Amino acid sequence: MVQDSSSLPAPNRADLTAADRPALIGPLDTIQVDVFNVPDLSRELQVDAGGRIAMPLVGSLDARGKTAEELSRSIEQALRGRYVRNPEVTINIKSSVSQVVTVDGQVVEPGLYPVTNQMTLMRAIASAKGMSEFARQDDVVILRTVEGRKMAGLYNMAAIRRGAYDDPPIYANDVIVVGDSPQRRLFKDFVSLAPLLAAPLIAVVQ
To answer: pTM (2 decimals)?
Structure first.
């Protein structure tokens, strides 16, 4: 439907905020821990390769897979009673190397890119400076592990740009492969039956 308007309407506040997607702490991330009224305990920490942090009076704590809120509760619990009365702990994730997506194949700059709260397939490919000149737009595969199972989705970028279906959200540890790939060939028989014009194809790899 074409509206009789000379300009694109402005988005409202709800349009500008993505659905909440919790940021999870992972190995080698850097976090800032602030303990209210105990400056000696406030510090910047790097999560070790095993996903743990070490703090005075607290000892070693598992941080991997926790949100900042969950980890601050764990530190408060470790401090409470023994050392600090009613501790208040705030944690900010300063830099995350664990929340990344891999973009590979026929893009200008393949590599690892940070996953933001609003990351989608088109934005991830834009992070890699876009598709290369002869990239096949109907051959974009997202690989993802869900509950221990490797899954793959085959997407047609031209169909997404046309609005035929939604630009899918991208999550940490996803792998995006643009162009021909072994994963793309898994879909060969399906694509001949159902072109990707109306919906993506989803398959369990193993």
So the answer is: 0.70
